């Protein structure tokens, strides 16, 4: 790894190229987040059974992310570098899973597709986070993660609107009972193509810095060979994680519990509460489900514009990352809660605009704070371990955390899941007050 002080500042387009693969990753995430619950319902799942069908995905991420981070820290290929081999492996399997997911004819097939898709995305995703920290000096970290978020926002907006757009150009959005409509199948197929080509673009346009001392690097890698040694090292790093990382973990827990709640319940909650449509084979339901994807696209669009603003600001001045993140998360929480109170469908755009502000911050500020607080030689493994604070809330949510909590706190109507998501996001906002390390909270 290059010494921090001698890393050159990169241009906007250099940062854009090395983050462009996230366009495809976000296509996959937006399609699975916006439409897998629709697929599950189409195949006969009850609303309260949907979270458990998502369980395998975060469980796999919990295992894969630290391992991939550990391995990528110890990888050096003379052509592909350190992180890019993992980009390619993840891209191949993600593309296959994304293409075939909407062709599932049974719930177990759809759940398996989601599991393979999420596991494959995880292989590519955190090395992308580590690459930003690898390539940029500390003074550009916020800027780098914000540019990455800009690309993610573009991907979220386009992918979330794909089934709606397919319907507008004449692709059928209804099918026989138990069959996923062609509009969704076409959208997932386009997403698979975008995923592979965008990651390939980053691989071909981005070079990585070699280790400062390649002989020493190879010697240390050889000394750490062996499965049990690797597992031991991972657990040692978990136990020795920096305090800043643990405090950020609290913020991440409530943030990702909120968004997992949205991904699993937004379609059933909004189609039922706002559009009064519950028959998954009906035209009314499928039109409403397309509209939900359109409204979800709003949070991607706004996250893109908010990221543009942050990119401009962070390229000119130093920011207080903690304050930006706290206010952004609280805004998103208000957006989620507002869904319960609105009276017209168009108002959902306003609600999800606030959610988009939170999403832009979630995808940039925590990683900027973390990358300034950990050993750069362990960037990959710490990024992987940090993912624990993303997948653990999803696991808890999947095994009944959402259903039990919203019914206990608010009531039996599924729309209360959005109130729960908002409450969780506001708690995440205030949890930022735990972070006091100036190296984390301010640009270098």
Automatic annotation (TrEMBL):
InterPro entries: MFS, MFS_trans_sf
Name of the protein described by the UniProt record: Major Facilitator Superfamily transporter
Keyword hit for Lipid metabolism: no
One GO MF term attached to the UniProt entry: transmembrane transporter activity
Species assigned in the record: Belliella baltica (strain DSM 15883 / CIP 108006 / LMG 21964 / BA134)
Keyword list, A-Z: Membrane, Transmembrane, Transmembrane helix, Transport
Pfam families reported in the protein's UniProt record: MFS_1
Protein's cellular compartments: Membrane
Membrane-protein topology: Multi-pass membrane protein
Entry-linked PANTHER family: SOLUTE CARRIER FAMILY 45 MEMBER 3 ISOFORM X1, SUGAR TRANSPORTER
Transmembrane segments annotated in the record for this chain: 12-32, 52-72, 84-101, 145-166, 186-206, 244-266, 292-311, 323-341, 347-369, 381-402, 414-435
A Gene Ontology cellular-component term: membrane
